[in-house]
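Suppose you are handed only these lines of text.
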Amino acid sequence: MADRYAPKPEHKFTFGLWTTANPGRDPFGSETRPPLDPIANIRRMAEVGAWGFNFHDNDLVPFGSTLAERNRIVADAKKAMKDTGIVCSMATTNLFSHPVFKDGAFTSNDAAVRAFAIQKTMQAIDLGVELGAKIYVFWGGREGAEVDLAKDPQEAIKRNREAMNFLCAYVKQQKYNLVFALEAKPNEPRGDIYNATTGNMLAFIATLEYAQMVGVNPEYAHETMAGLNFTHHVAQAIECGKLFHIDLNGQKMGRFDQDLRFGSEDLKGNLLLVRLLENSGYKGPRHFDAHAYRTEDSDGVWDFARGCMRTYAILKEKAQQVDEDREILQILKEIDRSNKELEGLTKKFSAANAKKLMDTPFDPNELASRRLPYERLDQLLNEVLMGVR
Ligand code: GCO
Ligand code: MN
Ligand code: MN
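From them, the structure of the protein bound to D-gluconic acid can be written out as follows.
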């Protein structure tokens, strides 16, 4: 029998080259896995059923490579893509590994570092577009501070804005078919990172010169680290037409950035997240920005990758089951207390509506007594999840 949870191209599952190549290094210990060549990585991703891959410039082309080396690697990557059918869905810049970026890239106090960061990003955009990327992610890992006296946070936001405006204009001048997706994170590697949440990013985007080509790339781990509700952030991004990309993974609240296998924590939260993505008509990639446990060997990495995709496919089925469950539907119907007349009054302000509303009598005690059977609703959701419905 065919595996109904097998990954399919229409799932749009993607992995960053850095995710499956993660060698298991952490602040307390060295690598537990050997390096993985990027071209072999691309081929293996295709083999396990990913639709696409993403990369930082230096995941593919090592920092400081010559033009000839770069071109040879690009040719090899294109061949792997052609042979396997995998696409390059997103590209991004590594503006965090080299010591030059130790105090920030676009927000550094040093104008030469800022200019170098923009130059490096222009080159990385060219590289991404050459491989077919349609989305370009900005994650400012070093755009933050430990010593707030050293960098004016307001100035940092302005510098970040200037960089975005410059790079948007570059994309337009080059006539690239590319949009930007900004990824927030509250901290790590910096003590505090500017634009710490997806909500901050949405507000920041509204101040950009080419705001229409800039959206967000929320990451499950990042809002969760901060103790926030990730699904609410994604919903807000969707609601304002700004969900351009998404980083899915697993994370416990209040910890360092764990980047665990998707669904390994908080299955209920992830079920509701998948339901939101699937029901919203979101067409973008489902990117797993995570890595295998440090305890895994090279083969275990692919168990990790398969697990991310399989969990998503299962949760997608469960979400559908939730939406078809008669008892759940009945409760949702019961708590949906729409009222055409009142809604007509409050939808849009007019003097007549305001007057009518002022004259409308309400009985707060009667309203408060209306039943909200959330215990039963949540139990039913749990039972779908536990597989007994
Ligand atoms: C993290 C971040 C990164 C970015 C990546 C792409 O957890 O450290 O999420 O993995 O997503 O650098 O910009
Ligand atoms: Mn992360
Ligand atoms: Mn990420």
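What can we learn from it? The chain has two domains: 9-324, 339-386. The first strand starts at residue 13 and ends at 16.
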